[in-house]
Design a protein that fits this description.
Length: 702
């Protein structure tokens, strides 16, 4: 090997040994490279973070600026709904039956109170709280306290500006007549109408809520004085009914008295105007509760009160005449395995006589002239089996099966009011067709609707459904029904001053297809005056104790209702027309003249009847007394020969009892407050004319 090559090899080996002999240098170089990499990475991270922050800032400040601005405003302001007061429900004369009154809810934030002792004093003086209760509400250990109860708006003046005391207005529904017509009116729960007119006319009554904005501090507390009303609430509209307050009061009292006297489980009383279909009074009671609406939602088998419609169809279709002879088969007739009986045995009689004495056999045999289709159509035309369309929720149609679902016994059963279920309102309207000349009217409970500003928004007038029977047929039937009251099964409904037409009914209570032993529906439907009807009254009692026949239990209620209507000076009755219908014939003894044709009074309706009262004596008078039925004894507050009447002292009496006594004297009654009577104005002892208004002041005021 040459020296040159050998020297080169030695030199390379020397360099390799030199490098391996300085390891610290390589470590430093690696650390330097790692540090440089970390610096570059950290720098990149810083740039990335700065980019994210910058991007987020751009997003918040540019793209989402409006959204966050609104969020900030929401954090310092709160928007809340301002409730609107509901509209009123009025009777036909504008008397308030339901209204909204304002109440104030009081709350306390104890930690915001400036002077606890002063706050305790304010609460005691303004709200009438006990010292213990006021101290509990202002306890600094509590964050928030709500005072029990609601207070009249007058407390605002005493508590306005008090630091830490918050006042919140609320509206509550108030019924100044108590439970009078409560089932018909309904109720308001959580601001929504439930049942009755409150539910049916919710869209009219509820109004439109407003809105207000309040400023809040960092703790979320409302800043006093920082409340702005941005939208005013709009009060609901008013609904004026056809209901007459005085008539409703009379109906309520008459039915309540009947339930107490007869021990019945419940009952219904409906008063209508036969010419317009207006509902003047509607009361349903069950177990002492007047909040029921069984007059429209609880159908029953009517029994004998359906017989006039059987006869009406026969006359209208030319299938029979009132003078036609009807075989009574000695009071018992078996048809297709079922025996129909009369309580009393009658000889063969005319169809008119069979209706007057309510002969089951006579009416059922006369109905054989019907074809099934004709009998069904007759009952359907009178409105049975169909809802009436009354402006109340929950109405039922009752039951009227089609002929293809009848048994062979059905025609006879339907003729005397079985195998059919009707509601009291249906029955009152159907009798209205007999009273007005043969036209079925739709029920009319709402007279008009007014908007929040009092402007007329709608007026609901009378509406004819259909002509059911010719006018002459209705007139002939009215004559027979008058004989039912004069000397038939309903003499307990007879008035000495006016002729009354009507029909009794007594039927067994049917529950789920089974007839209950010892339980009966007692009913009576009447209209008066018979020659020019102005009012139809339907009464039904559920399971009266003892004597249960309609002529003995329900008919007297109708009489009481009619007498009360005559006593109310401002009732819907046409007084001039009543004078033309006034009785003028009397016997020397002062009793009613005997009925024509020499008929002897029937001792019972064919479904059974109690004792028939003795004839009512007709009080002698030269002119009709103002507002009083002539067969009523003059009250002690009247002075013979003097048209003025003394205002009685009624303090302490229940409001209904006091109102009834004033009605009997011919006064118009105005109520203020509720509960027992605290005072009467004008003062007791003052002498007023009949028809003047007397105000009853209750012990409790709204």
């Amino acid at each position: 090997m040459s020296p040159v090559r050998r020297a080169s090899g030695v030199s390379r080996r020397s360099r390799r040994r030199g490098r391996s002999a300085d390891p610290g240098r390589e470590a430093r170089q690696r650390r330097a490279r790692a540090l440089a990499w970390r610096r570059r990475t950290l720098l990149l991270l810083w740039f990335a973070a700065a980019g994210v922050v910058l991007g987020r800032a751009v997003q918040l400040q540019v793209f989402e600026a409006s959204e966050w601005r609104e969020a900030a405003l929401r954090q310092h302001r709160t928007s809340s709904e301002v409730p609107a007061p509901r509209g009123r429900i009025l009777d036909r004369d504008g008397v308030e039956l339901a209204l909204t009154r304002e109440r104030v809810r009081v709350s306390v934030a104890p930690r915001e109170l400036g002077d606890r002792d002063e706050a305790v004093r304010l609460l005691r003086d303004a709200l009438g709280l006990s010292p213990r209760e006021a101290l509990r509400l202002t306890d600094p250990g509590r964050r928030w306290s709500v005072v029990r109860g609601r207070y009249p708006p007058a407390v605002r003046q005493a508590l306005a500006g008090a630091r830490g005391v918050y006042l919140e207005p609320e509206f509550e529904r108030f019924y100044p007549r108590g439970d009078l017509a409560r089932g018909l009116l309904g109720a308001v729960l959580d601001g929504v109408g439930r049942g009755g007119i409150e539910q049916s006319y919710e869209d009219v009554l509820r109004g439109s809520p407003g809105r207000e904005v309040a400023g809040r501090d960092h703790a979320g507390r409302t800043i006093p004085g920082q409340v702005v009303r941005v939208e005013e609430p709009v009060q609901g509209g008013d609904v004026r009914l056809t209901l007459d307050l005085d008539m409703q009061e009379l109906a309520h009292q008459a039915l309540a008295d009947a339930l107490e006297q007869t021990g019945a489980l419940g009952g219904d009383l409906v008063v209508t105007d036969p010419h317009t279909g207006e509902v003047l009074a509607l009361v349903s009671m069950r177990d002492g509760d007047a909040g029921s609406l069984s007059a429209i939602n609880t159908p029953f088998e009517p029994g004998s009160t359906l017989k006039p419609f059987t006869v009406a169809g026969l006359l209208a279709r030319g299938l029979a005449e009132l003078e036609d002879s009807v075989a009574t088969a000695k009071g018992s007739w078996t048809v297709h395995g079922r025996t129909i009986s009369d309580v009393y045995t009658y000889p063969d009689m005319t169809l008119a006589e069979a209706l007057r004495v309510s002969s089951n056999v006579g009416i059922a045999r006369a109905a054989q002239a019907y074809s099934p289709g004709a009998q069904y159509e007759t009952l359907r035309d009178f409105g049975f089996g169909l809802p009436t369309g009354i402006e109340l929720p929950g109405e039922v149609a009752g039951t009227l099966r089609r002929p293809d679902r009848w048994s062979r016994q059905s025609p006879a059963s339907l003729a005397i009011g079985y195998e059919i279920a009707v509601t009291p309102v249906q029955m009152a309207l159907a009798y209205g067709a007999l009273a007005n000349g043969g036209v079925l009217m739709a029920p009319r409970l709402v007279a008009e609707i007014r908007g929040s500003e009092g402007r007329l928004a709608g007026r609901l007038g009378p509406r004819q459904v259909r002509r059911v029977i010719p006018a002459d047929v209705a007139g002939r039937l009215a004559g027979v029904l008058e004989a039912v009251v004069e000397d038939g099964t309903a003499t307990a409904a007879r008035l000495a001053t006016f002729r009354v037409a009507g029909k009794t009914g007594t039927s067994r209570v049917n529950v789920d297809g089974d007839y209950l032993d010892g339980r009966y529906y007692s009913s009576f439907v009447g209209f008066f005056p018979a020659d020019a009807p102005q009012m139809v009254v339907f009464v039904k009692l559920d399971s009266p104790r003892g004597v249960y026949y309609g002529g003995a239990t329900a008919a007297p209620v109708t009489r009481a209702m009619m007498e009360g209507a005559l006593a109310v000076r401002q009732s819907p009755l046409d007084r001039a027309a009543l004078l033309r219908s006034l009785r003028t014939v009397s016997s020397p003894e002062g009793t009613l003249a005997a009925a024509p044709s020499g008929r002897s009074p029937a001792p019972a309706d064919a479904t059974g009847s109690g004792a028939v009262p003795s004839p009512l004596r007709l009080a002698s008078f030269d002119r009709p007394p103002p507002g009083l039925a002539a067969d009523s004894a003059p009250p002690a507050d009247r002075v013979p020969g003097d048209d003025l009447v003394s205002v009685p002292d009624l303090a302490g009496l229940p409001s209904r009892t006091a109102a009834r006594r004033l009605h009997a004297l011919g006064f118009r009654v105005r109520w203020l407050g509720s509960g027992p009577v605290a005072a009467v104005s004008p003062a007791p002892g003052l002498r007023l004319e009949s028809g003047d208004t007397v105000t009853l002041h209750g012990v409790a005021f709204p």
